[in-house]
Amino acid sequence: MSKLGKLRETIEGLEDIKNILSAMKNLSIVEFNKVSRYLLLESKATENIENALTDFTSFFNLSRDMPERERLFILVGSERGLCGGFNQLVINYFESHFEATKADHFFLIGNKLLSRYSEKFLAAQNMPGPSSAEEIPFCINELGQRLMEFSHLRWVIISNSLEQDKIVATEVWPLEFSAKKTKRQFFTPPRLNLAPKVFYTQLLEHYLFSMFYKTLYLSFMAENKERLMHMEGALKKLDQQWQHLTVKANILRQEEITEEIEVILLGR
Length: 268
Hints:
It is built from 5 helices and 5 strands. It has a 5-stranded mixed β-sheet, with helices on both faces. The chain is α/β, with parallel strands linked by helices.
């Protein structure tokens, strides 16, 4: 095959790659916009539940002083790749802010996080992360079932946020609620249709689920944002390479035409 033929083949290959990356970029944009609507609603729901729990605990003090418990580190990573340093940021934050002990437990979310760092967390439990917004509710249900055996531990949830290179670490006591240190907003206790202990238990369960929804929505948005930036950078480099090879192919084609003209003239 001539040099020009090889160049054209390479250019066609680059165009195929560009089409694939463009499709992945568009998919990330769709997922990002879809989850952004869910996140707004879930953030408001979490805030309302927190306010209700704060109001309740200011009148019904059912919670106890939270002792130091063994920790469960819940690391939220990605299920798919091509998202830059998304997973590495979670690991870096954990290693720089926490000193793990033999008593600590680990739970990894996302197969990319597990495949890259399984040696660091040999005894960690794990589960797949969401690949689309529609999979997040199923992940939450499985997560709720899997974490029941760790309800006696202190949970530390480490995940990405939408701010560039910023990680969020949230500490949760699954059987207790740490009320906000604010002034009591109401002078009379809330009217309850359930016994205070039953109400507290059920509302706390809603709070945990809402908090995990918010965390996974936020992490999934950050993942797609990172993937979008990754795709844009890759497409920019591909465009530059495509333009360079196209110019080179045009030069070779001009040289071939010149040689053909010279052969015709010499043949006369």
